[in-house]
Specification:
The chain is built from four helices and seven strands; from the N terminus they run βαβαββαβββα. The protein is of the alpha/beta class. β4, α3 and β5 form a beta-alpha-beta unit. The chain is globular and about 35 Å long. The chain starts with a strand and ends with a helix.
Length: about 150
């Protein structure tokens, strides 16, 4: 299933994260795409907030992975740097783990990802406006249906 949403400000971005946070479960995989500065990390910060994570969430660009512990752990990955070096980095235990895996630049490691997952591709339309295309099959399709109301 696929939907496209228009987001006009940070409050709407946070509301989207809040809605998605209500559906999270162990093993949830969220791939995030979009240009630099489109809002991937900002969305992840809001998602973490609505998961009850109190830590400061920032981009793991240089570390590839940051883990935020909570009743449902958040595995925040930024795989931008893996585009040219391949799949040597050990991420399987987090992608297929017991927490929520949020993977910025997921398209760079698509072969490592489950066939069925939740993806959000963010396109900046202006300084504040975003167009977000959300896709997912299986259990994720039900979440997308809920978001379209």
């Amino acid at each position: 299933m696929e939907i496209t949403l228009k987001i006009h400000n940070l409050l709407e971005m946070e509301k989207l994260a809040s809605k998605i946070a209500k559906h999270l479960f162990p093993g949830f995989v969220l791939g995030m795409g979009g240009d630099l500065g489109s809002g991937k990390t900002t969305f992840t910060q809001y998602l973490a907030k609505h998961m009850g994570i109190k830590a400061v969430v920032n981009s793991p660009t240089f570390t590839i992975l940051k883990i935020y512990q909570n009743h449902l752990p958040l595995y925040h990955m930024d795989v931008y740097r893996l585009e040219k070096i391949g799949y040597d980095y050990e991420l399987d235990e987090f992608i297929y783990g017991d927490g929520v895996a949020v993977i910025e630049w997921y398209e760079y490691i698509k072969r490592m990802l489950p066939e069925t997952m939740f993806s959000m591709d963010i396109k900046a339309l202006s300084e504040t406006d975003r167009e977000i295309t959300i896709k997912g099959g299986g259990v994720y399709a039900e979440i997308i249906k809920d978001l379209s109301h």
